[in-house]
Amino acid sequence: MQETRIDRSKLLTEQRNPNTADIDRMTTLEIVDVINAEDAKVAAAVRAEREHIAKAIDLIVVAFKGGGRLFHVGAGTSGRLGVLDAAECPPTYGTSREMIQGLIAGGPEAMFRSIEGAEDRPEDSAAMLKERGLRPGDVVLGIASSGTTPFVRGALAYAHQLGSRTIFLTCNPNIAPPVPVDVTIRLLVGPEVITGSTRMKAGTATKLVLNTISTAAMIQLGKVYENLMVDMKAWNEKLRDRARRIVMTLTGLDPGSAQRLLDSAQGHVKAALVMHHLRISYDEATERLRRADGFVRRALEA
Q1: What pLDDT is attached to residue 3?
Q2: Is 88 a catalytic residue?
Q3: Is the domain covering 237-301 a CATH 1.10.8.1080 domain?
């Protein structure tokens, strides 16, 4: 798809910040203070997009409930943040590694070193999505601070062609996606402390939004009870200890009893809680959870 060349000199993310024009003359403490003052603007920019963020979450939850997947697509910092968000969901919320996936321009090697030219190839993202079997029930979240990244725009175009749902996340006000999308999130954090260095405010805003999207989606799927991660995978000693402490907190049991309950629940925190509170077997607890769509609160109140 041939697109009109964009004049990047007009982009908000490429403008000079008047508050930092003399940053090279500042003391170390003054530099810290001015960066902190600019960072303080990020939360407000995220809040301004709360309705679009919520719409994106609802769209993603519908996809997940239908067996769909979420693909974060980005280059550079944006791509790394997407990969990070995808990688953290399996241990935290017990998701499969396929449910949320991060695609970065340049492939896995780009997580550890800059491969700048990779972001200019829109065909690469389409090929990656094709390799992963993108289908209409999936969601593609294109992350591009500038909004102009060909790798991201190519992914959105390919997803649109297939009929997948799409979300466009950018930090510029006037950049349109290459095709119609379901949701656009514009995080207008303003010019960066160092002109064009979007790993700073733009990156922070992106991380906040990705945290919000994945966390809220997991809550809506029943992977949280009260404010505890009851669907976590206890893959290491820290997580096994957390699972035990969650059971202790919600049952009042001592450590030994909590561990025995977890063992009888085959390590599943949700089942352990339902078994304890309703005095039922593991099989009965898992069936009750199944009927409650995995929500502990619903299973206990049914």
Answers
A1: 60
A2: yes
A3: yes
